[in-house]
Design goal:
The chain is an alpha/beta fold. It is built from 18 helices and 13 strands. The structure holds uracil. Uracil binds next to helix 10.
């Protein structure tokens, strides 16, 4: 059930003078002072009401970006953003709930097989998702490549999907009512160079996830060139901050740090990624995608009080239990699970320049190429091509021969090939098989994508 936004003292008495001046709050953070709880509550509420202007919030976001916030400030900022809107309440459901949030990466289609896999074990998965911006893809964009599938559901439809009468999992658009302060602020940060900042990312993600009302939350914090966090120490700080915020709000929260130096799986792009997710749900698919799906599912089920072994989870992918849930999820949202996925009319192959071992396939380069081929958007109103993207034929650690295909570029608009190829200029390196880089790439592949776990 969605509750009404908590009205603030200010919004119920518009004639009252405002208790703070935005300029004083900006100056306080500029001068490295701690913001008080009252200042934070007011600035978030006043920004949501339009009393604090975009240019003032931009200045404050930049001051926070440069000077940070301590844990207490971040917790209050998160809470104020939650209180800017309504909250979902799943306590009437007859099953526990668990959700996963990824900080975003290239080829990250994990939600697609993960949600039905977890639901197949009796835990409901409310995946209220967004669209992609920049080089990372959005889950809704991927699913919209399935003919007929609809992202927007009513509150009652969401509850029906999550109940025992439904498939037990739902992937749909997050309504406008959850953390509206974050919606406004995230759009502003995107245009003011203030996205990649731990306090702002942590509060942005956790305000939405706590407002969503899940009982357990597993965070997939990406590290590497294709992620917000390029270094593991930075990613760990983000993960620890989010885990603490979740626990303080009564949500069982854990995090995995996972590698995003190279794309996940063998596809980046909307319909291409759905096809790969279907391979996983059919018991196949690339080893790294299967391993991460199973690792995250095990964490979600354990955090929701239904511990399940990884062998059992792999069995549910192989024997069609997770696929049955997927088909029901798609059908209930007017999608046709049997309809052929669209394919690109134009393709170009990128080949290996030499014999050896592929030591680098850079996630950012591939993500930008997929984006330039039409898979992603530069502005939130832009359309995306379902068919566009990059198909990957070799991953770091693989042996390749000169002239062999490394990538196939897909698009509906061939004039995009040139710019996509430019993005890949330094993205691939092939080394002689006896070079130390080649041995390191093989070792990294064998180590797997999960780098660390924070509980
Ligand atoms: N995803 C979000 O929802 N917010 C951020 O700030 C970054 C990634």
């Amino acid at each position: 059930m969605t509750t009404q936004p908590t009205p603030s003292a200010h919004s119920t008495h518009p004639a009252q003078p405002e208790p703070f001046d935005a300029v004083d709050i900006i100056a306080a953070k500029r001068d490295r002072h701690r913001l008080t709880e009252a200042q934070i509550d007011w600035v978030i509420d006043a920004y949501t009401r339009g009393v604090v202007a975009d240019e003032q919030m931009s200045a404050l976001a930049m001051a926070i970006y440069l000077n940070g916030m301590d844990r207490g400030e971040i917790a209050r900022w998160t809470d104020a953003m939650i209180r800017s809107g309504g909250r979902m309440d799943f306590s009437a459901l007859d099953r526990p709930t668990a959700d996963k949030h990824s900080t975003g990466g290239v080829g990250d289609k994990i939600t697609l097989p993960l949600a039905p896999l977890v639901a197949a074990f009796g835990v409901s998965v409310p995946q209220l998702s967004g669209r992609g911006l920049g080089h990372t893809g959005g889950t809704l964009d991927k699913l919209e490549s399935i003919p007929g599938w609809r992202a927007d559901l009513s509150h009652d439809e969401i509850m029906e999907m999550l109940s025992v009468r439904g498939p037990g999992a739902v992937i749909c658009a997050a309504g406008a009512g959850l953390a509206p302060a974050d919606k406004k602020l995230y759009a502003l940060r995107d245009t003011t160079g203030t996205v990649s900042c731990v306090p702002l990312i942590a509060s942005s993600i956790m305000s939405k996830k706590i407002a969503e009302g899940t009982g357990a939350l597993i965070l997939d914090v990406k590290v590497g060139s294709g992620a917000f966090m390029k270094e593991q120490t930075q990613a760990r700080e983000l993960a620890e901050t989010m885990v603490a915020l979740g626990k303080d709000a009564g949500v069982t929260t854990r995090a995995l740090l996972t590698d995003m130096s190279t794309p996940l799986g063998l596809t980046a792009g909307n319909a291409l990624e759905v096809r790969e997710a279907l391979d996983v749900l059919s018991g196949g698919g690339p080893a790294d995608v299967v391993a991460l799906t199973v690792a995250l599912a095990a964490e979600m089920l354990d955090a929701a009080g239904r511990p399940t072994g990884q062998d059992e989870l792999r069995a549910a992918l192989a024997d069609g239990r997770a696929m049955d849930v997927w088909r029901e999820m798609i059908r209930r949202q007017d999608g046709d699970p049997d309809a052929p996925l669209p394919t690109a009319p134009e393709k170009e192959v990128v080949v290996a320049p030499a014999d050896g071992v592929l030591t680098r396939l850079d996630a950012l380069g591939v993500g930008v190429a997929a984006w330039r081929l039409g898979a992603g958007r530069a502005r939130k109103e832009d359309p995306v091509q379902a068919v566009a993207g990059v198909e990957i034929h070799a991953k770091p650690g693989d042996t390749v021969r000169a002239g062999e295909p490394l990538l196939t570029l897909h698009t509906a608009t061939p004039e995009r090939f040139e710019r996509a190829r430019e993005a890949l200029t330094d993205a691939m390196i092939v080394c002689p098989a006896d070079a130390p880089e080649a041995r390191a790439a093989v070792a990294r592949r064998e180590a797997g994508v999960v780098l660390d776990r924070i509980v």
